[in-house]
Batch of 2 targets.
Target 1
Amino acid sequence: MLLQLTLPVAIAIIFFQTGMTMQQKDIHDLFPKTIGGWQQTDPGKCFTTDNLYEHINGGAELFISYQFISACTQTYTRGDRGEISLDIFDLGKPKNAFGVFGHSREALDWRIGQGCQIYEDAVIFWQDKYYVAITCFKCPDDIQGVLLEMARYVSKAIDKKGALPEVISKLPEKNLREESILYFNHHAWQNAFYYFGDDNYFNIDKETDAVLARYDMNDDQMYMMLIQYPDVGKAQGGLMSFREKYLEGEKEQFVKLEDNYWLGSAQKGNFVTVVFHARSKAHAQTLLRSVMKKL
Amino acid sequence: MTPKPISRRKLLKDATFASIGGALYFNLPAKALDKHKKPKTRVVLVRHKDVIDDAGNINPVIMLQMIDNAVEALTGMKVEDAWKTLVSPDDIVGIKSNVWKYLPTPPELEQAVKKRVLEAGVKEENISIRDRGILNDDIFMNATALINMRPIRTHYWSGVGTCIKNYIMFLKKPSTIHPDTCADLATLWKLPLTAGKTRLNVLVALTPLFHGSGPHHFSRQFTWQYKGLIVGFDPVAVDSTGVRLLMKKREEYFGEERPLNPPAKHVFLADTRHHLGTADPDKIELIKLGWEEGRLI
């Protein structure tokens, strides 16, 4: 059976297993002892890919798909006012933290870290290589102030910002719904807005940087997937794979599919882009041209 | 042989899958009429406006009434007779619940079902209500009958938490069923500990979670007081109905197409690959009881 480790012991073991990097000690330092009268109630626990399931069960796969390194969690209580959980995930690279955060983002909000979502019972944000979630269980309705105070403490303790993946900068800004941007490097997330299918049509893996985004053009809500490959050959292979497997050998740049929506696909350099769910060919062409100009 | 991957185009083009795929992947309406008049799988949706009070407390009397109404509609029998067809005095009964702390199987439902199982003649010492640790539970290890009850919710990796998925604790290492976004969860129902033993499935839709956020995939903001139970013998039909409910709610809330991500593939494959039951809404007779406002399906 896998052990649930207390936070200091887990850190010591991770140091030992990973060559004593100081990065893991940083996680430990990010946890406040007390916030607004809420105090740590246990030694805390840390998890790796081997036992993250014990903490968040099937949800662990989301983090593992973003090259998760480790996570630590700490519970805070104040009398019988419920329970606050502070979870800090180390995703190794800022782009992965941004990617995980994209799954929770519904609106743009930069009040905490490099982007946050603030709910009545939770504050979630990303900063540098960390994805941070502060959630409350059976707490009073006025808990949000405490959650925000805790979030600000952690953000200040991280004291560093991370760079977004280059592929994001290639998205055309016109008509972009910025809150929809979802970065990923596992093909499971290619269906986030529109179900393509189960196959890894574009050969997406941890060496590729892929992004999905929504575009509103008049009444047409379209989607764009832009993928940056390590080299031109892999980009050519990605487009060829998509056209072979999904478009069934179709070589036309613009295709009208069974659902009566238009899809356009192209490759330029080490990038492949697909625009889809367009009601008209003209809209698909406009969006595809706009991204090609930026590549 | 590796099964062929599912795709949007295949689902739209292949008439065999069009109805199920349309319902589970694209939120398309079921056909209005069944031309073939084949027998359908019965699923009961029962709702009661007062089962939860303003403070979020569940009324145990109404909960019992709801499960009674559902079982009567499902079997076409009076409740006391109906339960005697579901379990017999010699049975060893495992009531498989779900303890996920944000949205557990309500104790009021567990006790309502236990009451009816006891009244059907099963000895108290032969009943266990449990989720985690069932592989160390003598009742579950020797069970002759299972009753499966859990809340419906979206899920980061399997798309949805369902009755089918609720048997994952029958595996020593649940993560072994995670590949391909939990595609083959239906195989859990063919394990020696489970095969042919399930007498009733209850998908709890009192406060369903229709969208996930954060590491635990939970925020109260994405739940709503639907105040329903979805009940049936066929777990696939029950889950398919639950998936349609979540998709309708997502459409209503977001005001735009927002597919489950990942999709509820395991429900689709439970029908088309594993033949555990039917996910096709055209083959499901959905009996709707009780509170009508905001029923969505």
Target 2
Amino acid sequence: MKFQDQIRFVRQNMKKNKTRLFMTVLATAMGCTFLIVLASVGFGLQQSMVDNIVGDRLVTAVDLYGKNPDQHKDTNIYDEDIQMFRELADVKAVTYRNNIYQWLNPKVEGEEVGSDKTTQVDFEAETKAGFDLSAGRMPEADNEIVIGYHIREQMDEQGMPTGYEDASEWLNKTMTLEVTYYAAGKKLTEPMEAVIVGVTEIPTKEWNRDKTIYMGVGMLEKIEGITGTRNGELPYFEVENPTAEKIDAALANLPKPSEQRSYQDVQVVASHAEKVKGLVETLRDKGFYTHSIVDELKQVNLMFAIMKIGLIFVGTIAVLIASIGIFNTMTMAVTERAQDIGIMKAIGAHPSVIRKLFLLESAMIGLMGAIFGTVVAYGVSLAVNAGLPVVIKQFMEEEVPADFLFSVIPPYLTALACGISLGVAMLSGYRPALRATRIDVLSALRRDV
Amino acid sequence: MIELAGVSHQFRIGKRGKERVVPVLHDINLKVEKGEIVAVVGRSGSGKSTLLNLMSGYIRPSSGEIRVGGQNVTKLDEGEWANFRLANYGFIFQSFQLIGSMTAYENVELPLVLKGIGSGERRAKVMKLLEQVGIAEFANHYPSELSGGQQQRVSVARSLILEPPIVLADEPSGSLDSENEKTLLTMIRQLNHELGITFVIITHDEQVASIAHRAIRLQDGRIGGLA
């Protein structure tokens, strides 16, 4: 019997009792919805808590400390490595910090800035990685910079820090910088100007003080153009006034901007916390020294996996309860159609064909339930994510973070739920199907069954 | 074509452990030749239907051997019997045994569907046969919308759709009036004559037996005489 004929046959039979079919599909759909929604809470909490509350970069970032000398001759990280990291699966962003190797004497409106370092970053990658600002915006032009939250440190008469003024007051103000360089045997300075457009968020670790000046690659290249050295590095002299020959000799030993750039403080940020482990393994296999907070928090993935398995298990119980309905429906269908089955067997229907027809019928009930259940589950998930923050705000007076999701349904959860519904439906239909194959032809023809 | 050698059959009646054995057929030796119409006649309870059920594979003989087309079918399992029936037998029943939720067309089509024949080929075959038995205009009618004679024609069409070499008929005219009975018997003769189909007909009706080449009389489970 061809499969399309089996489908036609089953559809014909299912139409015989539409109310019973509807109720059975409804029960299966409810079970499937319950399974998906319940598990989606696990997925939602994982995504929202790990990625947002625990601090996504804290958990998802993998620090890279160069290459393993056993596998690589040169242990520095270069452009091609950065490019390779960006092409890896499950990578959200690749960031780095290139510190400027000289004091730029920054001032705002004549006031000295208590910055501890100036560093060049890739603002686009930083934005993707979750570089947050407490005020202002990210730079868009080459001469725009971001300053650290604690940059306006106040000192007492003894030079001890007493507090911090609001750095956001400096937004849109011009910061002057002095680039020191050597030319024709003389130490000279070149002024530069930058516009402050953003202030970083207060660091998560409260003992950290962010007094950094963040600039883009445009400004770094300008500094390097002035000094003629990589990262604006200056040579060190033991004497106060070195000779021109010594200056030239020292400058010749410093790396030039035209040489291949090596990157410091490289971080590869994973798309999700659960992807970090795999990413770390990939990077280690490629011969990089890595460190991730997940190294210390290996139990995180396990904990969420156990939680999700538990929720799926509880949800499966709902599907199993629905399967009682399928079993009942199929048993009644076999009883009602006993004579038809007898006639089919009498004229030459193979028992396996009879079994297949009933298994297919229960599978179709399971499939219809799974489809309806999935659609409803997506609706419930959307409603929960939209409605629950409003309810919490109304009755508990708590503000839920804007991107917090209570329920997330990844595609594989849908596939899993549909698979479980289908499997359970077929299992419930198996016994009635077996009973159908055992119907005695003569009893059925005599209408004795 | 069909050969029964020393076939006996007994039913076990009652609860397990307190069963009573009721012998129905005793040492039946019978040969049906290809192209023959054989009528099995006898009074009610003589074992006619049991004999047909043994030939159909619905029950197994307690002893003896059944051969069909040279093949020993005595020990076939349920699945093998199903395939064998589909390939070799057509069935006509007294109460027609049509599936009530299927139209006349679908009932006739059923053996073709079970055999896995494509829908295009099926349609042509079914319509041709329905025309031959004279009920093409009722193709989309359900059995409940047809008379007894029309239902039996559908049953005959279903039995012939796979062009089987053998048709087993159990009281085929039992539910028909005399006019429809006459039409059915004419049809059987014609099919036998034109297509060489072997018929084994169980009947207690002498008129039905009269169209047979041979009539075998069963009496108390034994072949009692040849007519």
